[in-house]
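Changelog note: in this version the structure field was regenerated for every chain. One regenerated record is shown below for reference.
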Amino acid sequence: MALFGSKSPPPGGPALPGRRVLALGAALGETAQAALAGAEIVAGTVEQLDGLGLADCDLVLIDADAWDAAALAAAVKSLSAAKAPPPVLMVGASLPAGLVRNLLRLDHADILEAPFSDEQLSAAMLALLAAVAAPAAGPASDSRCWAVTGAVGGSGATTIAIEIAHALAAADKGRVCLVDLNVADGAASAYLGATPALRLSEFGPAAERIDASMLQAFATPVSDRLDLLAHPRDAAAFDTASREAVLRVLEIACESYDWVILDVPRHRRPWTLEALAGADEVLVISELTVPALLAARALSDEIEDALGTGLKPRIVLNRLASRMFGPAPSMAEAERALQRKAVAGVSSDWEAAAASVNLGGPIAQHRPKSKIVKDIEALVEKLVSEAARRDATRAA
């Protein structure tokens, strides 16, 4: 596995759906919603801190100015005696020393002095959540990364990336992460019926802050062995997400998962070549139309020449027609136009693909007998077997 080389942020913090935040202070509800978009914010009282645990909420946000200092100090002290208390972020303009001392008894706690911005509150909350979010497994010792990109728009690259990731997870090949690098308008999360949670623009140039725990906080679980890293729709994201942040995410993902599948936009970005250079396989997806085949050949040549590493992109022909005669070229004719062999063909099954997108989830989940599913499984097995043979040859 090769290594990846590693403006003011928009309002609103990272979307972390499913996070439960207990907000103590009437003024905090709206503020927390703005800073932690998508989280479940519940208003509470200091009495609820007694015996509170991680099973009850993921984080406690306290407005120190809204409560009697002595009562709040006692409540925080009782919380520190709990077996597994949630992290606590305390905000306020007046923070008595006794209250702060009790807060510091907790394993995970922080203080934010008022006034503060939504971005500052978001960063403080995210850091606390990341501190207690441990990855489900240790770093993968020998991860593999496959990059998928379309030769033309609408070639089906995102669908194939999703199905590849699902096939690897379903075959119990290890932990799999699907990374949608279409950070401005990626469709992987919509196809899967998942909520995107990765907001790279929040980091600006401070990419070194991204670690395995923080990446896990950004990951959206799709199944037991498959996670999604996707950016909320943001037209400015390609400008605000730094090259360093993108490459740092890919580096940490490859350290944390056994398989990383990249859905790469076809238009080149400052990080595109480094992302592709860090991949073990680059799959270029093409339809069986003459313009798409010519684009696939040109794109494959461009990638190979630009990388200069000997990595040869592999072309996958998508939406193969089952009929023997018709206007679409056959696979053999397509390969003549490409002037190279295709690594695989994926059958056309519009009904299965449309049903999957509309219902949310992989085609394999909703139409497991679809020809698409069988073709993707064959492609995955072929690539896995080839990789195993290469490893055996190098080890010999």
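Spot check on this record: Residues 144-395 form a domain with the Rossmann fold fold (CATH 3.40.50.300). The chain has two domains: 20-132, 144-395.
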